[in-house]
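Quick one from the shared queue. A colleague (R.T.) flagged TonB-dependent receptor as missing a structural entry in our internal table.

Convert sequence to structure tokens.
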Amino acid sequence: MYSWLPKVSLLLVTSLVPLAVFSADDIKGNKKNDETDFEKIIVVGSKMNQAVQEAPVSVTVFDRTMIDKAGMMTLRDIDDYAPNVSISQIGQVGGSYISIRGIESNPFIVNRTAVYVDGIPYRDPDMLRLHNVNQIEILRGPQGTLYGSNANAGIIVISTKTPYQELESSFGLSVNSFEHGQSYTVNGSVSGGVTEDLTAIVNVEFEQGDSYVRNISSSINEEGEINNIAVSSRFRYHPSDNSQLDFIVFYNKLDAPGLYEQEFPAVDVDLYNQTYGATFNGGQLIGDFEFANEAQKNTTEEEWGGAVALQHDFDELTFNLTASYRNEDELSYGTDFDLTAMPVSSGGTQRDNRYWNVEARLSKLEQSGGSWLIGTALSKEKKSRQLYSLIGTGGFDDYAKASLQHLEPQSWALFTQSIWPITDNLNLTTGLRYEHSKHKITQEAGVLDMGEIGQFTFPELSREATSDAWVPKIALDYTFDNDVMLYTSASKGFLPGGYNLVAADKGPEIANRYGNYDDEELWSYELGAKSEIFNGKAFISAALFYIEAASWQEYSVLTDGEGRIISTVLVSSDAAIESTGFEIELNAQVTEKLNIIAGLGYVDASYSQYQFSATEDFSGNDVKMVPEYDISLSASYDLSDHWYARVDMQALGETPLHQDNSVTREEQLILGLSAGYQAEHWSVRLYAKNLTNERYASGLAYKNFLLGDDGNDYAPLANPRVIGVDFDWQF
């Protein structure tokens, strides 16, 4: 179904001319004046103090009003409204992996989209909450000049609320109901002046409830529960009129009894019940949002850290210094290798990660004339991993521990970017970054018993690799007399190479074969435009792009002849991809009461080279987890001065769930409805997400890890229909 959508999309983009930037600034239903608000939106992610209309890059901006009325609770919600942005997941409490324009991210490489919150980088942003967020920006295309590696696809920049002298406080409550349970979220914040020169804000959020996919065969009688707490505080100190100093601290904790970080329900429920209902599952039959795993499951995660940011304004120059530290500890039990209720074998993972980042830059950012910045950045990480296994029955204390594995990436960089006006209407943007990376790996020798899968051998390893990268960017933009801005750009992206943490049934042999992998490099070319139309009552933007990666890091999981896994994940760099497509976005105040936000994205991404194994060549296949198209439409109508109604629609094109393209997610149409009342100091909203209760995969699909190819596929699921109500009170 919906096979006509790509053709209509192509016709639409050719009739609108190549275009490229959109903003979801105003969704309140308030009539816009001729003096538009779009000029006031500053793209923080560009670091060049540019308004959204001036930045020669495809960018989507969500403000606080959009975040509230769309019900964006976590980072996973934003891809419903941003074309050519797809966020996959490996479980309700597992990682989130962001793909933009066919540049796919997955749990076994890294996020190729960098996420920054108030200057703090998050390589694994699965615990981020959005209740205290003021603005979200999505910049498409490589942003390596300013942000370094892990920005091949683009970046997401999140800015939280700034504390001011006036005392403010808020309270929020959300209650959700779905097929197998309920959940609720409580949040609150207090902000105001502490002294004449010091302001502060404190945010607290607590979430408790059932998981939306339930385990009906839990050996510990826990079908799945989620408990989240997030606390953050931001202090702003003004030692002088020209200086400000921000201190940020945060703490997040997750406790999920009955859940492993990765969950893989059967894609075909009827086939699974026919295969295992009577033989392995004791007559138990799973439903659409259920699975049957005997493994003892529990996931806990703690994350804490802080940052300091200094800004000092000289006569014509501005100096910025940001330093951050983030600590992340995770322990997750219960990957069920046979994916049934039989107590055969299961596994777990413990991770301890530390991140340090420092950036300093000096800039001259003028409203007219040339602008420039120069800077330096330092980054260091310490990661350790330990795999667990349990054969047969037992408790959490019975899991055997494998050898310790350590990774220590670090880098330093020098970068610069400038904007030079060639004429009153024509600007040239140039950027260049030099980055030196070092990657160290150590692994202790050992053996982990995986039961019927075999024994995974850990060879002793101690290796280092270094790489150097030059990352350029160039863009031209021209603004016509009717305020239409046309731009074109070319930019490079990169990821440093490294070494694999190897565990396999033939450890030393596999380690020699898959030991190291090379740097990843890609080039992105973009042509776009943006403009206000209808006397400032609408803003339209779009872009055409072509991306080529001649050296692409991909992963392999070795399997035997029956499809059973015989190794952990192994990264290689001998693949290549090409991605071509476009996106269009529109924000229109159709009438005084009706506001419409629409987005359309189309991507043709394929592996131009991908020798997966000695017998499997995936060259020519579509890139996994990239929808062929995505269309979003949101309409908000003011019924009165206080009442409003809203409808949200998202259509997703066919999506391959594995590199071999043997399993795909069909086209999906996801609907949402909401209605609310907005008073001066309080609001209430009733909403429904996934109204038709569509069941669809939200992450990579695999065969049965232990039993091999049983004719089925297994993949994490997106949320079912959710009915909820939220209440907010500001005082």
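Residues 16-730 form a domain with the Maltoporin; Chain A fold (CATH 2.40.170.20).
Residues 1-36 have pLDDT under 50 and may be disordered.
Added to the table.
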